[in-house]
Design goal:
- By secondary structure, the protein is α/β, with parallel strands linked by helices.
- The protein has a single domain, classed as 2-enoyl-CoA Hydratase, Chain A, domain 1, CATH 3.90.226.
- The chain has 11 helices and 10 strands.
- The strands form 2 sheets. The chain has a 6-stranded mixed beta sheet, with helices on both faces.
- 45% of the residues are buried.
- The structure holds coenzyme A (COA).
- The site of coenzyme A has 16 residues, from helix 2 and strand 6.
């Protein structure tokens, strides 16, 4: 089974994390698969919306820390993450997500690019960037304060506070909290309804609502410059080492 499954149901493209044994941690290859799928959806008139799904009780734990560690130890960063972030920031098709369980790091910041987000009562969101010696990414340093106000964005992005589904809903990151058993069907229903709307009117409306993407892309690049530098810092190296050592115990 691929770590990312890309499928179709009618006019809905489904992108599913499928690496549950590693809490759906995202490798470079997984970013690439998702970026390619989203770019393909953009150019495919038969796709009306994309839906991101995880596994029971796990959306994703974010970037694979072993990949971060490799960069910290001198490997090239690779462009896959950038391709993925560009795809979610500038893609023209509506993006829907269903979050059951944990959504950490880029699993959380991805939601800031979705048009509709549904979460189960056991969903939680967290971005431990600063504790890992890193900085916010995916444009979250720009989008989160606009979405939820400075203090809540700071609590999420800098303090690394864990937001429950209810808190995430209050912060504007989640539309509706839906029971785990009904979550995927609920999100799929919304994606299908979106995908059946008149495509041109939908595209124009979405573009107007999402506003200036150049600003967001510029912020993603600015964050990314810092992020790449931070990955090679002692602060980050020590944090990754601590995670690996905890694992080894
Ligand atoms: N990268 C690489 N591996 C990861 C991972 C990640 N982001 N998240 C989880 N895993 C792996 C664990 O190493 C473990 O692997 P193992 O079974 O080979 O030891 C497996 O997934 C299960 O994770 P575990 O930590 O045992 O699950 P948990 O339920 O106790 O904790 C988390 C879940 C998400 C809280 C914890 O795994 C974690 O903090 N992960 C790191 C999250 C992170 O910092 N992401 C990057 C943000 S920028």
């Amino acid at each position: 089974m691929a770590d990312i499954e890309v499928a179709r149901e009618g006019r809905v493209q489904i992108i599913r994390f499928n690496r549950a044994d590693k809490k759906n941690a995202i490798t470079r290859a997984m970013y690439k698969t998702m970026a390619d799928a989203l770019v393909a959806a953009d150019g495919d008139e038969s796709i009306g919306a994309s839906l991101m799904l995880g596994q029971p009780d796990v959306f994703t734990s974010g970037n694979d820390l072993a990949d971060f560690m490799a960069v910290a130890m001198g490997s090239e960063h690779g462009g896959e993450v950038g391709e993925y972030l560009k795809a979610i920031a500038t893609g023209t098709k509506p993006l829907v997500a269903a979050v059951d369980g944990l959504a950490v790091g880029v699993g959380c910041t991805t939601l800031m690019h979705c048009d509709l987000v549904y979460a189960s009562p056991r969903a939680w969101m967290q971005t431990p960037f600063v504790d890992l010696g890193l900085v916010p990414e995916a444009g979250s340093s720009l989008i989160a304060p606009r979405l939820m106000g400075h203090q809540r964005a700071f609590a999420l992005l800098v303090m690394g506070e864990r937001f429950s589904a209810e808190q995430a809903q209050q912060a504007g990151l989640v539309n509706v909290v839906v029971a785990s058993d009904d979550l995927e069907a609920h999100a799929m229903g919304a994606a299908e309804r979106l995908a059946s709307k008149p495509p041109e009117a939908l595209a124009i409306s979405r573009k107007l609502i999402r506003g200036d993407r150049d600003e967001i892309v510029a912020r993603i690049l600015e964050e990314s410059e810092h992020f790449k530098g931070r990955l090679k810092s002692d602060e980050a190296r020590n944090a990754f080492m601590a995670f690996m050592q905890k694992k080894a115990k």
